[in-house]
Design goal:
- The chain is mostly helical.
- It contains eleven helices and five strands.
- The chain has helices spanning about 20-50, 55, 60-85, 95-130, 135, 140-165, 180-185, 195-225, 235-260, 270-290, 295-315, and strands at about 5, 10, 10-15, 90-95, 175.
- The strands form two sheets. Strands 4-3-5 form a three-stranded mixed β-sheet. The chain has a two-stranded antiparallel sheet with strand order 1-2.
- α3 (about 60-85) packs antiparallel against α4, α8 packs antiparallel against α9 and α9 runs antiparallel to α10.
Length: about 325
């Protein structure tokens, strides 16, 4: 490893997902398709919510627009670097680039977790207290909740970077992953990392677990409420909750598995990492649009407006 003052790493070597050149080319094509789907899908949701006044005024779709915005940029933290590495043999990342990946990955990831928790609260109010829904989930509260989510993500990511930046690196510099993350990086430090790994679990692992348990509890309450009520919108409410639970599982299960398990690492960790950095941001638009009549209707309106505009421009 290159050194600076015998303690600071200049760069890390990423082992990636495969060492086979043929497999890397195949993975490049697969993940390129995934990345294009992530960008187009989430961008479509953001534009649709912003363009439709009815959706923008609805708290649920207001939060959904922010979720897609986060997913849009979350995929940009790791996927472009991974795609570039597939086309070359040497996969390296500078120490500053590694810190930047850790910061933005945890900033956007934690913000998304907090936002999903807020969305669960939104569904709880909408289903369990429908008569006061618009009064409780007013515009000011929605803005405050979203702002709190971004602030929470910033604080979490800042503490993650603090955990890493103070560590000395003077030995092996190979990271068994396709991007920089705290669990792999701290294992390369030239010191006893027991305390650091415990802090990582307290910061990331417990955060993921607590948010996950709160979400499961809130949806359990919602489902119990739906069982005791029979009304026309019950099927729609169940569909919405099912969509949210699917997204929650795809995000939280891999995070709990990776960050709540200190001192050990498995080869399957890379597979779980792919889920919350690539697969989930790609599936979110499909889950929220294919199962949602309001989104599909708004997209049809947007398409008609675009076609009418294009015809007007041609004339």
């Amino acid at each position: 490893m290159k050194k600076e003052n015998d303690s600071m790493a200049i760069e890390f070597v990423l082992l990636g997902l495969s060492s086979s050149w043929e497999m890397q080319l195949f993975l490049f094509l697969i993940f390129l398709c995934f990345y294009v789907a992530v960008i187009l899908g989430n961008l479509l949701i953001v534009v649709t919510v912003r363009a439709d006044a009815h959706l923008l005024q609805s708290p649920m779709y207001y939060f959904l627009g922010h979720l897609s915005f986060i997913d849009l940029f979350l995929s940009c933290v790791t996927v472009p670097k991974m795609l570039g590495d597939f086309l070359q043999q040497g996969k390296t990342i500078s120490f500053s680039g590694c810190l930047a990946q850790i910061y933005f990955l945890h900033f956007l990831g934690a913000t998304e977790m907090f936002l999903l928790t807020v969305m669960a609260y939104d569904r709880y109010v909408a289903i369990c207290n429908p008569l006061h829904y618009l009064t409780v989930m007013n515009r000011q509260l929605c803005l405050q909740l979203v702002f709190a989510c971004w602030c929470g993500g910033f604080i979490h990511s800042f503490t993650q970077v603090i955990l890493v930046i103070q560590l000395p690196f003077c030995g092996p510099n190979e990271l068994d992953n396709f991007f920089c993350d705290v669990p792999q990086v701290i294992k390369l430090a030239c010191m006893d990392t027991y305390v650091v790994e415990v802090l990582m679990v307290a910061n990331s692992g417990l955060l993921s677990l607590i948010c996950f348990l709160v979400l499961l509890f809130s949806y359990a309450v919602i489902l119990m409420t739906l069982r005791t009520r029979f009304y026309q919108g019950q099927r729609k409410a169940l569909s919405t909750c099912a969509s949210h639970l699917m997204v929650v599982s795809l995000i939280f299960v891999p995070c709990v598995f990776i960050y709540l398990r200190p001192f050990f690492s498995f080869s399957v960790d890379k597979v779980f990492s792919v889920f919350y950095t690539v697969i989930t941001p790609m599936l979110n638009p499909l889950i929220y649009t294919l199962r949602n009549a309001d989104m599909k209707t708004a997209m049809k309106k947007l398409r008609k407006k675009h076609v009418a505009f294009c015809c007007f421009v041609k004339e």
